[in-house]
TrEMBL record:
Residue ranges of coiled coil: none
Record keyword Transmembrane present: yes
Molecular-function annotations in GO: acyltransferase activity, transferring groups other than amino-acyl groups
Keywords: Membrane, Transmembrane, Transmembrane helix
Name of this protein: Esterase
Species this chain originates from: Antrihabitans stalactiti
Upper taxonomic lineage: Bacteria, Bacillati, Actinomycetota, Actinomycetes, Mycobacteriales
One Pfam family from the record: Esterase
């Protein structure tokens, strides 16, 4: 079952097989010898699908605007195709007459819907495997109590790999646990965090590992880094090549809900800045046996999470002197500056400027900070901003790396970005020499 569950949905033949079957299903839904079906049902259902998709586009992009950037047009096209299939299924069942045709019509609409989902998933690469798409448990799950257990002997050093010698009984793979991190100071109502601990963490003596706090995008959730981000696979591969060593990763909640955008600051939208800069580090140090020194701490994220990581690094360089900004925005935004300042800062643009990374980097120097910017070479919406922000960080005295990877604004870029930056990050955090 594991082999089937781990089949790829973003590479190889499976997504195209699903799409091909869906196309066949769509042809079945469109075909019938009955004149009323061809002359009435198909035009009416197609018109309904076009109108419904157009209404959806206007509501999402012009009225509701839950996301700071527009959804790519191919997504709406595939949604429209799926709507058309659903609208056609009842007329096609009636036109089919007998039960075999009716059952085939239901199978056809399911196949078409799966094909649309497969193509949309190829755009975002959020569900890389069948396991992730079905929400099946990730391998390596454990209870948080196993991570919270302290040992009496620890190993430290810079770089840590020169002092570390793995025990014979060390596990071969890391483990994941889900745990709530309360907003004691901030009052922020966060969703549960996901924690990855590498094999070395389960040794006695235990190495005092560096910490990477990761953030998802918007829309998004902490578990996105386990699915589309392939966090466990990336960290396990790194640990396998470095005697079980890898950063301890805490995927914290930076939004509060799937669609919320609290701008990663303290505002009427939520005290996210205090949560991520005060509550989360304090909780980690209190409950996990790690290296508490700031030089061993990094924060990173993608899209909204990348913007948030840079905000934390520029507003709190003593807490997060190292950051990963993957496809982040030029500035925190709800779509435009006016709307952002009105909703998040009560109309006070000076308050926005006070915490905006681009403004901070114009007036302050960060000689002890370092960061990596990674963006998709085809990401026309975010690539120009990433180039500007990376240059501003460099001008502010940061040690900056900038990288473009093939792809757009999707998990195929962000998962690869994390893997590409692991050596740089591990050296920066004192894990390897």
């Amino acid at each position: 079952m594991d082999g089937l569950a781990d089949l790829s949905l973003i590479s190889g033949p499976l997504p195209w097989i699903v799409t091909a079957v869906g196309v066949v299903g769509g042809l079945w839904l469109l075909s019938s010898r009955r004149r009323w079906f061809a002359h009435r049902a198909v035009p009416l259902c197609t018109t309904f699908a076009v109108l419904a998709t157009a209404v959806l586009y206007v509501v999402v992009e012009k009225w509701w605007r839950p996301f700071p950037d527009a959804i790519a047009m191919p997504i709406y096209v595939w949604i429209g195709i799926a709507i058309c299939g659903v609208a056609l299924v009842i007329p096609r069942m009636i036109a089919a007459g007998g039960w075999p045709g009716r059952i085939l019509s239901v199978v056809a609409v399911v196949a078409l819907a799966l094909a649309a989902g497969a193509q949309i998933n190829l755009e975002f690469a959020e569900f890389p495997t069948i396991r992730s798409a079905l929400g099946l448990p990730e391998k390596g799950r454990t209870s948080f109590s196993e991570l919270a257990t302290h040992v009496s002997k620890t190993v430290s050093g810079i770089p840590l790999d020169t002092e570390w010698h793995p025990a014979a009984d060390m596990p071969t793979e890391g483990k994941i646990a889900t745990v709530p991190i309360p907003g004691e100071r901030s009052g922020f109502d966060a969703r549960d965090a996901e924690i990855y601990a590498p094999p070395a963490y389960f040794s006695d003596p235990r190495p005092l590992l560096p910490v990477l706090v990761l953030l998802a995008g918007q829309p998004g959730a902490p578990e996105d880094w386990l699915r589309g981000g392939r966090l466990v696979e990336t960290m396990n591969r790194f640990a396998d090549a470095h005697a079980g060593l890898a950063p301890l990763v805490v995927v914290a909640d930076g939004t509060g809900s799937e669609l919320a955008n609290p701008l990663c600051t303290d505002s009427p939208l939520g005290n996210v800045a205090t949560y991520l800069a005060v509550d989360v580090p304090a909780w980690i140090k209190a409950h996990l046996q790690i290296d508490p020194q700031p030089r061993a701490w990094a924060v990173g994220g993608l899209s909204y999470g990348g913007t948030c990581a840079l905000q934390l690094a520029t507003n709190n360089p003593d807490i997060y002197p190292t950051f990963l900004d993957f496809s982040g925005q030029e500035e925190p935004t709800l779509g435009d500056r006016q709307r952002t300042v009105a909703a998040g800062f009560g109309g006070d643009e000076a308050a926005f400027i006070k915490v905006n990374p681009m403004d901070l980097m114009r007036t302050k120097k960060y000689p002890t900070s370092a960061g990596a910017f990674v963006v998709g070479s085809d990401d026309k919406d975010y690539r120009p901003g990433q180039m500007k922000v990376a240059q501003a960080a460099r001008d502010a005295g940061m040690d900056v790396t900038y990288l473009e990877l093939p792809g757009g604004h999707s998990w195929s870029v962000w998962s690869a970005a994390l893997e590409k930056q692991m050596d740089w990050l591990a050296r920066r955090l004192g894990l390897i020499g």
